[in-house]
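lol ok so funny story. i was supposed to be doing the assay writeup but got distracted and ended up predicting the structure for this chain instead. priorities right. anyway since i did it might as well share w the group, maybe its usefull for someone
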Amino acid sequence: MTRLADLPEVIAVFPLTGALLLPRARLPLHIFEPRYLAMINDCLKTDHRMIGMIQPRAVPGGEARLQAIGCAGRLTGFSETEDGRYMITLSGVSRFRVKDDVQGFSPYRRCQVDWQPFARDLGPAEGDGGFDRSGFLALLGRYFQANGLSTDWGNLREAEEELLINSLSMLCPFDANDKQALLEAPSLATRRETLVVLMEIALRGGTEGEKPQ
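and the output, tada:
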């Protein structure tokens, strides 16, 4: 099990709108931009092999900045295509709060980060004592039908609570602000409640103002 003391103070970050990584979940990525190919090459040379996934935050009239909170994953899968692109898998380790940008000559961004607020991410899988699986799956079925999505319902019925809720948070086609709200949820129960609200709003054809902040 990873300890706080094992985590690096500075990590490479990959800003990607709409991409969500959560602890103990896996995120496949297709890497083709030269600066991020360089990032992967450099990551493979480190002992920790950690990359931080974080969403850009648009600032009216200014440059895009980073959200304050992201999630780092360990590079656990890697393959290269014939034309030099990389197919990788990140396994989520812990969320982090950005403390500062690190200046340097790398073509990608690096940040000094604080892991302490999310020490719980390094523990065992979370449970959700208030989880009503049958009701949740009924709502999910309506949401999937409305959005033309399909899934393996047998696996969903058998999946552990954390795997089910986190995987759906990552995979459902919510907008970037919704994804950030799911990332920042302080507990699995809160993330499940947020997920339910987002699906209910989508089914009602809700407006942006109805979404959880």
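The chain is about 30% helix and 25% strand. The first strand starts at residue 10 and ends at 15.
back to the writeup now i swear
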